[in-house]
Design goal:
Layout (H helix, E strand, L loop, with lengths): L1 H7 L14 H11 L7 H9 L19 H12 L2 E2 L2 E2 L4 E17 L18 E14 L4 E7 L4 H12 L9 E6 L7 H11 L3 E5 L10 H11 L9 H18 L9 H11 L10
Parallel strand pairs: 3-6, 6-7
Antiparallel strand pairs: 1-2, 3-4, 4-5
Helix pairs in contact: 4-9
Length: about 290
């Protein structure tokens, strides 16, 4: 137990210039403190590996700081379940998840890519020249698994408004009862100003903002992850024109095989998550 407690301590609190201990660091420190006469790295690792706490692991995390985090997230999760203000959506209601994928580079490799050989993977030159960058704006129809996209030189209010126009000026969205647009808090569609601008232009459009730092609740991010894996990796293009051509071609290809995402994260899961990451409430000790 003393060894496990030591492994959970931060080394710099004991005057060591380390952010975390390695196995060898712990072996030396355990011996220095006299906790054991001697111990092998394998034995120490076995002790730690059996424990529920893994102090050598860490992950990057953004804690919710939006004061209305849960309420805003619940609205989006309800939409994914076919509800709005606890009322079921109709057949003439549509849900659009939209965002921008920024700074997509065209990397011009300094040596032609070598195709795979027996027992040898394809080799892509590490060094490259920058051939510019563009933005890919996409809108994903959550219920119909249909995607709309466009490439632009940059992001901003005007490029995003062109995407909205591209969707809202065609059927079935033009005459739909309601079209819910789920967006994050990027500058192209942030806050009340964006709501007034877009809902003023389209009477049936309802802009639904995610909480701050909650893009993981936006389904279009799943589509962007598919784009990243299947189109942009490895990044080996002759120029921006080829990048744009490949993105738009994939968009048409993907629609032929796409199905609505099986979204399983619900209000109940959100409540459990919020309870898990909320700071503990101090308990007053009896006098």
């Amino acid at each position: 137990m003393q060894v496990k407690a030591l492994a959970c301590e931060l080394p710099h609190q004991h005057g060591l210039p380390l952010s975390r201990n390695s196995g060898r660091d712990l072996v030396r420190e355990v011996a220095r403190r006299g906790l054991v006469a001697s111990i092998s790295g394998r034995t120490l690792w076995r002790w730690l590996d059996q424990d529920a706490i893994r102090p050598w692991q860490h992950r990057s995390w953004i804690f919710p700081r939006d004061p209305d985090f849960q309420a805003k997230a619940e609205r989006v999760l309800d939409l994914y379940q076919g509800l709005w203000h606890h009322q079921a959506l109709g057949a003439n209601d549509y849900i659009i998840s939209a965002d921008e994928k920024t700074s997509i580079q065209a990397r011009l490799r300094l040596h032609p890519t070598v195709p795979p050989q027996p027992h040898q993977a394809r080799r892509v030159e590490f060094e490259y020249e920058r051939g510019g960058a563009l933005a890919y704006l996409a809108a994903w129809d959550v219920r119909r698994a249909k995607v709309f996209g466009r490439c632009d030189t940059t992001t901003g209010i005007k490029p995003f408004d062109r995407l909205v126009q591209q969707v809202m000026n065609q059927e079935p969205y033009r005459k739909a009862r309601r079209v819910f647009w789920i967006v994050d808090n990027g500058s192209s569609h942030r806050g009340e100003a964006a709501r007034r601008r877009l809902q003023g232009a389209y009477a049936n459009l309802i802009l639904v903002h995610l909480p701050v730092h909650a893009s993981w609740l936006n389904q279009v991010e799943i589509y962007f992850s598919v784009i990243q894996r299947k189109v942009l990796t490895p990044n080996d293009f002759s120029g921006l024109d080829q990048v744009a051509e490949r993105l738009l071609a994939f968009q048409s290809f993907y629609e032929q095989i796409a199905k609505p995402f099986e979204w399983k994260f619900t209000r109940a899961d959100l409540h459990e998550l919020v309870q898990k990451i909320s700071p503990p409430v101090p308990i007053a000790l009896a006098a």
